[in-house]
């Protein structure tokens, strides 16, 4: 009986000494506070390039923005010179609610 108790104590000590596994974030990804999940910011960069050039959004961009909606604010904050009103107009055309970043 003492051996079982000693093994149990040893197991608890060893399991407490190893940190829990963490999730790595790939390069090009960011952890969004808004959605709580990770997003691929590089996937929507092309869409924001077209907004900056004054072009209309393609359906592919709209689909991509809806898929990666959790990181739109991260990209908006990282890109200087983007007018949030213009961005919101384009997002509204894609069926995405107005972003308050």
UniProtKB/TrEMBL annotation:
Biological process per Gene Ontology, one example term: lipid transport
Keyword set, alphabetical order: Lipid-binding, Signal, Transport
Signal as UniProt keyword: yes
Signal peptide: 1-24
Stored Gene3D superfamilies: Plant lipid-transfer and hydrophobic proteins
GO molecular function: lipid binding
Protein name: Uncharacterized protein
């Amino acid at each position: 009986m003492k051996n079982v108790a000693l093994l149990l104590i040893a197991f608890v000590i060893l399991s407490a000494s190893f940190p829990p596994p963490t999730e790595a974030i790939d390069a090009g990804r960011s952890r969004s506070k808004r959605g709580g999940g990770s997003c691929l910011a590089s996937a929507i960069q092309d869409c924001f390039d077209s907004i900056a050039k004054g072009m209309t959004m393609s359906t592919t961009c709209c689909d991509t923005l809806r898929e990666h909606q959790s990181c739109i604010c991260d990209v908006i904050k990282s890109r200087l010179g983007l007018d949030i009103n213009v961005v919101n107009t384009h997002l509204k055309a894609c069926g995405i609610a107005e972003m308050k970043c």
